[in-house]
Amino acid sequence: MSTTRIRCYALGMIMLLFLTGQAGISLAASPLESLKIPIETVLSLLKDPKYKDPGQRQQQRDKILAITRQVFDFTEMSKRALARNWKSFSPQEQLQFADVFADHLSNSYMDKIQGEYKNETVVFLNEETVADGKALVRTKVQRQPSEISVDYSMLLVDNKWRVYDVNIEGVSLIKNYRTQFDQILVKESPAQLIERLKKKVDVKIGN
Question: Considering the chain, what percentage of its residues have pLDDT values greater than 70?
Fold first, then answer.
């Protein structure tokens, strides 16, 4: 499997794992513990044979997407993905962008993971306090015959640890999108970028 394909698969895996997080993780849980609980839950979901039935796949997808926003801090992700361009968006455009960016991320990798899960496991290596209210959790996804290093940047929001970036084999999800958005916004307005993402989401839903 090529490096690009491995990264794409890994990103899809990470998205699926965290889209199934549980809302009840409290401040008492460490960043690592806050990740381990939902990951173990979703691995059980992925192994459940009933979801091998194509007729059950939408139910699995709906359960995952229903709690997406409880795990990711999409507003923080949006701010970081737009960087200096964030201030050029009106307050309404900022809300619209955060919503459509969340939908885009949620939908982009779901099909790949639902179709390609092969009993992968996740090993939790360690956690590191980066700053007050920020932490880094290091893991690796084991997929024979390879291992994929995955680091999670987390932020303490309303007494819950939430993900605002994922780094796969040294490649940051947010930095990757920031580069794309910077290039688009040189020629297009915030409204045009939002509409561009909406069209991608609509096409994905239509498929």
Answer: 79
What kind of architecture, by CATH, is found in domain 3-206?
Roll (3.10)
Distance CA 81, CA 171 (A): 14
Q: Pick 9 or 144 by higher pLDDT.
A: 144
Ranges of beta strands (E only) in the chain are 121-131, 134-143, 146-157, 160-168, 171-172
**CA 175 to CA 64: how far, in whole Å?**
25
Q: What are phi and psi of 199, to 5 degrees?
A: -65, -40
C-alpha to C-alpha distances, 161 to 60, 80, 187, nearest whole angstrom: 24, 17, 36
Whole-angstrom CA distances from 130 to 75, 154, 158 are: 20, 9, 18
Token couple for 134: 């920020």
Copy the structure tokens of residue 54: 């194509």
Q: Where are the alpha helices (DSSP H) in 48-157?
A: 57-66, 74-82, 91-108, 110-116
Is 145 buried (19+), middle (13-18) or exposed (0-12) by CB count in 10 A?
exposed
Q: In this predicted model, which residue has the larger pLDDT, 3 or 146?
A: 146
Host H or E run for residue 203: helix 190-206
Give dist(CA 82, CA 180) in Å, integer. Answer: 9
The angle formed by the CA atoms of residues 109, 110 and 111, to the nearest 5 degrees, is 100
Contact 96, 103 (CB under 8 A): no
Q: Which residue intervals of 109-165 are DSSP H helices?
A: 110-116
Neighbour count for residue 23 (Cβ, 10 Å): 10
